[in-house]
Amino acid sequence: MNEQTIQSxxxxxxxxxxxxxxxxxxxxxxxxAKKAVAIALRNRTRRLRLPADIREEIAPxxxxxxxxxxxxxxxxxxxxxxxxxxxxxxxxxxxxTEVGYVGRDVESMIRDLVAVSYNMVKxxxxxxxxxxxxxxxxxSLLDLLLPGSDADKKEAAINMLPVKxxxxxxxxxxxxxxxxxxxxxxxxQLSTREKLREMLRAGKLEHTMVEVxxxxxxxMPAAEFFTGSMLEDxxxxxxxxxxxxxGGSKTKKRKVSIAEARKxxxxxxxxxxxxxxxxxxxxxxxxxxxGIIFIDEIDKIAVRGEHGGPDVSREGVQRDxxxxxxxxxxxxxxxxxxxxxxxxxAAGAFNLSKPSDLIPELQxxxxxxxxxxxLNADDFKRILLEPKNALTKQYTELLGTEQVxxxxxxEAIDRMSFLAADVNTHAENIGARRLHTIIETVLEDLSFExxxxxxxxxxxxSRYVDDRLKDIVQDQDLSRYIL
Length: 483
Known about the structure:
By secondary structure, the chain is α/β, with parallel strands linked by helices. 53% of the residues lie in helices and 12% in strands. The longest helix has 38 residues, at 108-145.
């Protein structure tokens, strides 16, 4: 349970209030939703502190988010996963079909989650081992620069290199050979290898060409034309068969620069240093204990009215999702995964259906229901100004790369906020995504002609906004189409 302890220690410093504060830096409003996910996350930390017999009895309280598109449902789940460094997967409920239909089976979401967890754990291990791997890479690069052990081979290799000393003076082959012979002399001159090491560290050999052995991957492209629950088994089987037919992994020679060889060798050494079985074990456990799956558009598989027609498979998808959410075992290439303690967050607009249209058993597996509020003009104004990734900040930085400084006045922000709320009221309500279209339309001409305004300071005023949007706002049919 070492990985559980690590996860618990990391999350111990995050109280629900602090989690909400972190989410506030990116997401405006929706306090109830933030509060619900913060409590769910904290309860996972509390559970890991309990004795094993009690810990296994406590299941996560899955959350159902209800609200129109563009109000922050997906962003809350995504930021939450980044905050707790947990394996996170976002899926669309509509991409799955029940067993027997063409499409992906619901168990594939668990396999995808474990794959995300594996890559996460592998990256963490590689980061911890990078210093040791760098030392091995340096020795490997020196071996490539000085192939063989006899003096003739070393001299031939050195004659091919555009070698300069650290001081900038040229080093002849004879001088380097003398240096090699003098490595044991009292004056302490460096050997050829040590001189090359010094130059390598100084970055003087980055463009020198060397020949490296690169392992060829036997992995074949995913067989997307196969569908059903056995897709991964088929793909794995094909890879194993290919390996048998080709005699396992092979290597090929490539002539590359030292800079590129360093990357190739680093990846190779890290792969050799990491125990893939241990990574698989940790990844599987982390997915089971800390994994989060966000199921978007769950309202699209809710059955409305009479059965039949295009709805025939929707209830089947719900029935297939049910055992995954309740807790079952799923076979993956990293081992068998128990889904009992994976946190599921489902979301949907439910504008054409109701949560009660889901099958009762599935409803019961999402005991926490959070209704997200529609956004108004004040919310849009805050979205434009407050988050770390606010749109106004993004466009200011983008145009800043062209040496064009744009300044948004408060009146311009108010006007864009009002127009976003107004168009959402009269047309389709797409939430904060409306701001993307409005600000892009406002800055379209400036973005196109940015090179003609280099060095200028351009103020975006309310009148500037109206001039760019007046035709669209006045023509309601056109505003529906464009905004």
